[in-house]
């Protein structure tokens, strides 16, 4: 074996040893890196599991305070969001451990799966955006109706205040007036009776033209006052009795003028005044005026005409 062949064999063995050494080093380094990656992944998983309880508590507090989510939906919603987050963590750890570049394109999709529920999350009882325009129009309509109702209530309150301000005045007007007093009986003095007697004598001494031209005619007897009373009869029995007493006092009727008759007349006049006082002010005034007219008419009927002298 020549020296050249021996040298070539030695070089080949040395090269093989170096190659095996390099391969061993590479394999060892790769194994160490894999072990390190798994160790890091295990650390991340352990940290996620450790923070799972605190994460659930944070989500529960967030949903209760900010989104006012009811308790029956709260637990299910928290579990859903935690599961989505854990799925995203698993995908990221898989990409880290496997070093698969083809799965890098799946990162946006996995991220969308996590963020979409948060974007669509709304407070409990919140109105969707589609119904917002309709609610705005209804709000404007209700505001207009409220203004109209307020204006109507203001008018009603003004009318009520005006009516209430007129009520004291109306109550004062509605107070019953004092009962009308019966007119006092007219008393004729001696001079008045003397004047009337003189006038009767004068008319008796001076005959009229009719008496001169006509033959003697016996004087007509006055009709019975009761006939006129029946013919007129505008008053009820109480008013007729009062009128009769009044006329007897005025014109000196032959009715006996004792104390009992005067007392009876006073009682009847008081009853008549009480009857008028029970009526309203306007009705009592009308009744009083009508009674006076009827009394005057009865006085004219009961007045005895002067006797006419007869020719002998």
Structure, explained:
This protein has 312 residues and is mostly helical. It has 2 domains: 3-125, no CATH class; 190-302, no CATH class. Helix content is 75%, strand content 0%. The chain contains 11 helices and no strands. The protein has helices spanning 3-50, 52-65, 71-98, 107-120, 132-174, 190-205, 209-213, 225-232, 237-251, 259-278, 281-302. Helix 3 runs antiparallel to helix 4 and helix 9 (237-251) packs across helix 11 (281-302). The radius of gyration is 66 Å and the shape is rod-shaped.
Task: Write the element-wise H/E pattern from the N-terminal end onward.
Answer: HHHHHHHHHHH
Query: How would you describe the shape?
Result: rod-shaped
- Give me the Rg, rounded: 66 Å
What gap, in angstroms, lies between the N and C termini? 225 Å
Give the proportion of residues in helices: over 70%
Mean pLDDT: 72
Q: What is the makeup of the main sheet?
A: none
Indicate the low-confidence ranges by residue numbers: 186-194, 196-216, 221-235, 252-257, 306-312
Transmembrane segments: 6-27
Biased composition (Acidic residues): 188-202, 217-227
Region (Disordered): 167-312
Coiled coil: 132-159
Structural key phrases:
312 residues, mainly alpha, 75% helix, 0% strand, disordered C terminus
Summarize the SSE layout with pairings:
Layout: H1 3-50, H2 52-65, H3 71-98, H4 107-120, H5 132-174, H6 190-205, H7 209-213, H8 225-232, H9 237-251, H10 259-278, H11 281-302
Helix pairs in contact: 1-3, 2-3, 3-4, 9-10, 9-11
